[in-house]
Amino acid sequence: MVEDGDPPSLGPELEFDMWEGQFEFLGEAFPDIRGPGRKMKNGLKNGYKAKPEWFIELNEDVQMLQQQMSVLADNQTHSDERYTRAKQDNATLQARVLMLEEQLREVETRSEEKLAEQERRHKELVARVDREKQLQVENCAIRLQTLELENSTLREEASRCKAASDRLKVETARLEEQLNENEILITSLREEIANLREQERKSRETLQANQQVIEELSDEIERLRSEQRRTLAELDSRGPGICPSDHENLQSQFLALKEENSRLQEAHDEMQALLLTRSVEEGRSLLTGHQSLAAELEAMSQDENDRIMDPRSIYPLKRRRSRSDFEFWPQDMLYSSETTALIAILRGTVGRALLSILCK
User: Fold this and answer.
1) 26 to 7, 19, 51, 55, 57: CA distances (angstroms)
2) Could you report the per-residue pLDDT of 272-299, keeping only the tens digit for each?
3) Sign of CA dihedral 302, 308, 314, 319
4) CB 261 within 8 A of CB 314
5) Nearest residue to 348 (alpha-carbon basis) of 302, 285, 286, 275
6) Are the beta carbons of 275 and 314 closer than 8 angstroms?
């Protein structure tokens, strides 16, 4: 161990310092050339140790030197072995370096070849991309021209559609206005039809009342005629013995009854003419009416149409008089024909109904 103040150690194998007095040679072969000296306090004589002490120390030193030589020999052996191993490692490493250099050259060669191949492929790829790009540009140009043509066509079509839309809007507005007018007209026609039906109902009632009055008057006339015949028969049977005053009475009654019959006949004729005129006017007004009137009347049920077309539902059956009676049967038939014609007009058969009216 190195203490404070001692020189540094030279290594684990050399633990002795080279200081003066480390080795002391005593004996017969080595006389003390320094002569007698004085003995010092530390056991040394003239600076040297006594014989027994230095002999023992010499043996120890020799042994130590031998050990150090052995250590040095071992160290030399180890050094040689390390040198040999280092030399072998160096040779191995040199061979490996050569091999790696060869591999590096091969890698560089392959890399250059691969780089050249990649450059060639890249050039081909760039050329192909350029061709494809050129084709795409041409296709896009053609498609652009086509789209421009389609765009112009679509613009023209849009203009036409817009014009058609405007026309349709105007037409729609006109049709809506016409529809409103038609609805108003239909409403008025329905009201008119209702009024005509009411007038027809009133006319039926009036006709039935007149017919009843006519029948009553006919019965009264028949009764008076019977009474006249009976009176005349009685007068004939009585001969000239009848009183002139009674004869004048009967004659005045006969004349009064005849005048009453004529007056009733004229009233009946006037009523028939009035009904005929009204029927013709209503038919003409319906002829100039809206076309949807026939369709509206067609919407009536079949029972109502049959009931209207059946004269027996309007006028009851009457016993036909002789020609010597009031002779109102042809006029009654004429009125029935006019009523039938009016109903035919209401059902839409305009021309035929008008023809039947004119023929009558």
Assistant:
1) 28, 18, 7, 8, 12
2) 777 778 777 776 766 665 444 445 555 5
3) negative
4) no
5) 286
6) no
C-beta separation of 58 from 3 below 8 A: no
Residues 166-197 pLDDT 10s: 999 999 999 999 999 989 988 988 898 888 88
> Are the C-beta atoms of 280 and 334 separated by less than 8 Å?
no
Q: Which of 325, 346, 344 is CA-nearest to residue 357?
A: 344
* Nearest-angstrom CA–CA distance, 271 and 334: 12
Give the count of beta carbons closer than 10 Å to the beta carbon of residue 221. Answer: 20
Q: 60: which 2 tokens?
A: 């120890």
pLDDT tens digits, one per residue of 69-88: 888 888 888 888 889 888 99
Helices of type H across the chain: 51-238, 244-287, 292-298, 302-309, 311-314, 329-346, 350-359
Q: Which long-range contacts (CB under 8 A, 24 or more apart) does 260-264 make?
A: 261/217, 261/221, 261/326, 264/214, 264/217, 264/326
The residue type at 144: L
Cβ atoms of 346 and 297 closer than 8 Å:
yes
